[in-house]
Design a protein that fits this description.
The protein is α+β, with helices and mostly antiparallel strands. The chain has one domain: Transposase IS200-like (Alpha-Beta Plaits), CATH 3.30.70.1290. 38% of the residues lie in helices and 14% in strands. Strand 2 and strand 3 form a beta hairpin.
Length: 184
């Protein structure tokens, strides 16, 4: 049996990757975006966290969360988010991927992969690298030629705040070593 270990630091900042089942391209659909926004707002009301950065791609998302002081329970938040989004997705006519008999017995649905990837941000350099990785991800996956062309990213908020120039990421970026870190 696999020993699944997670990093917990009260009030920490964490990088996450959440992937759809069989990489189904549902997250950037109009329904997927609306439902994700709904459940995120509701989750943050119940269990606050700062959504520091995010990028939404068709089959996965990356996010940076800062938890409140003394709080370590990002697993509860992600479990609730994925469960609620799945219920609402299916109730509103969204499709799901086939699941095995074993998965059915364990009440799994074919909308999200079972787990998520998490990484505890260690320092400012680590934060900057993961922030850049998040924002460059649509270019990395060949979805757009420039970071600024991807609409479902916190990149635009950072440009408005003066933290990134609008033409950031227009040249080739090097993330080979970071790609292993983020589990893609």
């Amino acid at each position: 049996m696999t020993s699944w270990r997670r990093a917990y630091l009260p009030g920490g900042t964490f990088f996450f990757t959440v992937v759809t089942c069989d990489r189904s391209p549902i997250l950037t659909t109009p329904l997927g975006r609306v439902l994700l926004q709904e459940v995120t707002v509701e989750c943050r009301r119940q269990w606050p966290f700062d959504l520091a950065a995010v990028v939404l791609l068709p089959d996965h998302l990356h996010a940076l969360w800062r938890l409140p002081e003394g709080d370590t329970d990002y697993s509860k938040r992600w479990g609730w988010l994925k469960k609620e989004l799945t219920k609402r997705w299916l109730a509103r006519g969204g499709t799901e991927r086939p699941v095995s008999d074993s998965q059915q017995r364990n009440r799994r649905r074919g909308v999200f992969q079972r787990r998520f990837w998490e990484h505890l941000i260690r320092d400012e350099r680590d934060l900057e690298r993961h922030m850049d990785y998040i924002h460059y991800n649509p270019v990395k996956h060949g979805l757009v030629g420039r970071v600024s062309e991807w609409p479902w990213s916190s990149f635009h908020r950072f440009v408005r705040a003066g933290e990134y120039p609008a033409d950031w990421g227009c040249g080739p970026m090097e993330f080979e070593d970071l790609a292993e870190t983020v589990g893609e």
